[in-house]
Amino acid sequence: MNVASYATRTGNEPGKEPAMLQLGQTAPDFTAQTTQGTIRFHEWLGDSWGVLFSHPKDFTPVCTTELGAMANLKAEFDKRGTKIIGLSVDPIDSHAKWAKDIEETQGTAPNYPMIGDTDLSIAKAYGMLPAATPGGSEGRTAADNQTVRTVFVIAPDKSVKLQLVYPMTTGRNFDEVLRVIDSLQLTAKHKVATPANWRNGDDVIIAGSVSNEEAEKRFPQGWKTPKPYLRVVAQPK
Has 63 been annotated as catalytic? Predict the structure, then answer.
C-alpha cells in the first residue's frame, strides 16, 4: 500500500494525529505476510464478512487471552460467514512462537491468519498510528503502540461497519462482536434496527425509513407502537 497517498486522503499529514476510518468508508486494501502465507486483503475476504483485530505487541498478557478467545470462537464466526484475521506489528516468526504460549495457556492456538505489520503500514493506513511514525516495529514497545488495539468489522462490499478501540488493560468482548455481526447481517437484509442489548431472536424496531403502508406489507403480523416513532416487531426470519 502507498501509505503516503492514503495518509493524504485521510488527513494523516506529518505531525498530525491519525485519522480514524469512518463507518461506511472502504477498508484499505493491502498485501501482507501472514502466518498462513501472503494475502491481498480484499481478495482474501472475497464475499465474506470480516473481522480484523489488532494487537500492539507479541507476548503481551491481555492479547494472549484475546487471541485464544478468538480461536475458541472461530466456529461461531464461521457460522456467520465471517473470516477473522489478527494483526500485530511484530514479524510472523514471532507470531509463531507466541502461538505456542497461547495454546499452552488458553487451550487453543490461533486457527486464523496473523498479519506481521513490521513496517507499520497497515496500522497507519487504518488510522491506528500517525502516518509520520518513524521506523518499523523493531525496538517499539506495547506502550508505544497502545493505539493498535482495535476491532474492525468489514462487510462483503469492503465497507467498515464497526470500529471498537480498547485500552491496554481491558480485554475485548468478542461475544459483543458476534452480537453486532448478527445485527448487521439482519439489518442488511431487512428494513429494521436492533434496540439496546438486543440478542438474536429478540424483537426489533422497524426502520424509520419504512412508512406504515410499507410496514403493513413487510410485517403483516403487525407491530407494537409505544410511540409513533417506535414500532416494535418480531424479528424477521
Answer: yes
